[in-house]
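Minutes, methods subgroup
Present: GH (chair), OT, SY

1. OT presented the first of two proteins processed in the latest run. Sequence and structure tokens recorded below as shown on screen.
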Amino acid sequence: MPSFMTRLQKSLDNLGKGEKSMERGQLFVLEGTDGSGKGTQFKLLLTRLRRLRCLVETLSFPQYGTKSAGLIEEYLNGKYGADPTDVSPYVASLFYALDRFDAATKIRTWLTERKIVLLDRYVDSNAGHQGGKIQDLAKRKNFLHWLYRTEYHILGVPKPDIVFILHVPASIGQRLVAQKSERGYLGGATHDIHEADLQHLKDAEQSYLWLARTYPKDHCVIECVEDGRLLSPAQIHEKIWVVLEQYLRYEAISRFNARNHGPWR
């Protein structure tokens, strides 16, 4: 299979031939297994983009503390079952989908203003965590088709330009989660029902990796562990930046040509 960077260059070449309108900004998403350092990478990317004077807007999902995240908080606190599998992946996905619907208008507005939108978790969190509940791959693919249709078409949630999946083995990730402080939505606890269940984390890990193999043009896996060693935040950031920078360069070229020469050919 061609490398991700080869596939990326081909995709950007196709964009230059007019396969996608550049009348909107860019939407980048950080996904990944629990304990993979999404929050840290989110901050590093935001700092670097603003240092380059990019117009950036951000959101983190779920939107804890808001009405739209109420069912999610109840679910993660175990109200509907102490085991994640007590709740159907379809039902649980709706909790999260409606939270994103609540933010969709805001995201569309930012994209219309041609801003960069950086999101910490998004639609593919359902593909990972809820898809991991489905072991039969044919049934998981059916679930994924339903998920994307529900969010992108029925609810009108904007589709990302690229999704970065930070990969840390579940056993390591759970140990890193244990280092987190208390979180408000858990009422003082440190682990929600996903994080406390190692098997769930392993299933989600495999589901994320399967997702990237199934839709390689839309996902880039960032390996955060090499030779059994967790890479530093700076090293992980550079892996992400090498890819994200290609999108920024294409956007800059596209805008220049639109102003000066018409469509890029």
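2. SY then presented the second protein from the same run.
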Amino acid sequence: MGQGIVEKHYDYMRKLSASRWAWEALRRNAEYRRDAADRPEGELEIREACRGIKLIRPRIDQTLAERWGLAFMPDPNLNALEAELFWSDQVYPRKLTVQVSPRQPGEVCEFFERTTAICRITHFTDRVGREQFVLKTDSCAVQVRCEGLSLVSGAPVRMSVMFSQLEQIEHKLKLLERALGLYGEPAPVEKPVWRRDSLALRNAIIALDCIEAGLSQYECARIVYGAEHAEADWKAPGGALKSEIKRAFRKGVYLRDGGYRDLLESPQTRRRAA
């Protein structure tokens, strides 16, 4: 990480959810990277089920992973769309939730049929039998908690989306919209269009990579805004560009060193990381 920093290499981040941005910050934490490198070999049982669904179950307790807010420790060399990433309920309670119930003879579970047709799916069962899964495409990932019956028991089941608390409905609707967005084929775009909050997070991540590579704030500005813009505005009166890059550096360090947890909490708390 930190080698060959090019602005377009971060284009995959444009549609990341807050929980995936949190991973981009955490995987750049040197202490996490050391912990991940020391994890026991073979600590996870990984196998493939029908329709290419990956099943993961830990063979040992994941105490170290829980320290970081994770169900287990993903490889920090993998980005937010590549990593097998499951946040714990303690740090990320606001997941999309599905109720798993018996499926009647002849009944079709539309949720299952549609997601398996278009998504890569990883299912995780923890040491006490709680289940979650992640739906992924090339541009989006959604973590889903399961309630009710087991998805891996072999019995016919169906899934339906749950909204357990009134104050969470808006957040859950956004997650559901993101999940449903997995079904569509995105139109090709020549240059990604960024939301303001996502662009600020991207610049913070670029700043972290510049720190890792030993680059200056000015060199970071050249990467983020282009050489011509940086050269023209770096010494401009008011120092707006310098201030923006300094904010990106402060924000990146804050998120990397623990502030990533803010991104996993409520939108009100999340504003502190914005």
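Chair's summary of item 2: The mean pLDDT is 88.
Next meeting: continue with the remaining queue.
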